[in-house]
């Protein structure tokens, strides 16, 4: 049996969400578990368009097996009108086979997002990503206010998950509080996953 890993699954056309994914992965590793970064391809308006099997840059594309075999999940997307991006929703819409067999029931999960403006729908996007995870029976984790960065942040950061204010051009780097919250979320996910693995043991 392979060692448990946490899947960090995200969609990103720009660097902000991918940067967050890497900081969350660092937090997972600080919590003593392996993090696997995966992304999803863009949704094309052309019916016959086919994306390459392996993206030109960044993380590999996710498969249902990545979800099936993970011990926990961090799910991320930039905000699209207060909701998750279509490519991530499209991928999640294709997970009904996992729902039918209960493959994700009882696994911990957390969410993260980035927005162009400070009040651009961070919290509603995080909540939109939680809905399919709840339908899958996953155990949802947020960020507690014992994380001091949650009280001190002037950028992203919510109790529903990690967030980032990327700016209108998408180029604003993560600040120290946003990084701290990404890593805290990853570590909390790893700690919870390890405890569940031990109890199932």
The coarse overall form would be: globular
Taking all Cα atoms into account, the compactness measure Rg is 16 Å
| Terminal-residue CA separation | 13 Å
CATH architecture: 3-Layer(aba) Sandwich
How do the helices and strands follow one another from N- to C-terminus? EHEHEEHHEHEHEH
Task: Give the domain tally.
Answer: 1
Number of strands: 7
**Residue-averaged pLDDT, rounded?**
93
In CATH terms, what is the fold-level topology? Rossmann fold
Q: Stretches where pLDDT falls below 50 for ≥5 residues?
A: none
Description:
Strands 1, 2, 3, 4, 5, 6 and 7 form a 7-stranded mixed beta sheet that branches. 43% of the residues are buried. This protein is 40% helix and 18% strand. The chain is α/β, with parallel strands linked by helices. The chain has 7 helices and 7 strands; from the N terminus they run βαβαββααβαβαβα. The two termini are 13 Å apart. It has helices at 15-30, 64-69, 86-93, 96-101, 122-135, 148-152, 176-200; strands spanning 5-10, 34-39, 72-80, 83-84, 108-115, 139-140, 162-165. It has one domain (5-41, 55-200): Rossmann fold (3-Layer(aba) Sandwich), CATH 3.40.50.360.
